[in-house]
Amino acid sequence: MAPHTDPVRAVDVHAWAAWLDDAHRAGELLDAPSPDELDLPTAYAVQRALTGLREGRGARRIGWKLGYTSSVMREQMGVDSPNLGPLLDSMVVPPGTAVPPDLVQPRVEPEIGIVIGADGRPAGARAVLEVVDSVWRDYRFTLATNTADGSSAAGVVVGDLLDGESDTDLAAMPVELWRDGTLEATGRGDAAMGHPHTAVAWLAGRLAARGEALEEGDLVITGGLTRAVPLAPGGIVEARFPGTSLAVRR
What we know:
Elements: H1 13-26, H2 40-56, E1 61-67, H3 71-77, E2 83-88, E3 107-116, E4 122-132, H4 143-148, E5 153-161, H5 167-172, E6 174-179, E7 182-188, H6 196-209, E8 219-221, E9 229-230, E10 236-241, E11 244-249
Parallel strand pairs: 1-8
Antiparallel strand pairs: 1-2, 3-4, 3-8, 3-9, 4-5, 6-7, 6-10, 10-11
Helix pairs in contact: 1-2
């Protein structure tokens, strides 16, 4: 059972954060608690406490990740709303290299990453692969329990700048997801809330509601454009965008 305080069963945010942190560091999977044990606002408080533990060990936030901005990802994972989580420098995986060996059940999805300019608005776009690794066994979670776990953020592979960054170009930009030499899925930039910039605007609004803001240099990965595919030992996953590609292996 998830940590809580009796008798009122009010959530102990720091106990939850330590529970998740310990499991990740030990490479252990957890069974998600019942849906009524955690609501979304409290889940974000747990997420902030979990991030604080990681920052206490030297990690630094470099941006944000968005989850479930596309219908294909919401359908795959059985959630009905987007969420967000911090992107940390400890999550950066160089293109073509292996994911960290401590990941337990990694999956990979292609995304468009938006770089934030000095005015807090989009200033560029990059090809991105996100590596997720949920602490919840078999990716069985609610939106709240996923949010508490940082929206499963585990790794980010940042590729080249994308050509053609007009609104139309990014919305219509195609991507192919390949696994071990086989085409697994295709998608377009408009899968992310209709446009990656729309996803960034959604994030800006959510941050403003809690007294935060996008900062110059932030990288916002705007959500999976296809379903996520498992990355098996010895496997490789590649995203092919017009004019560029990037890959990650295990």
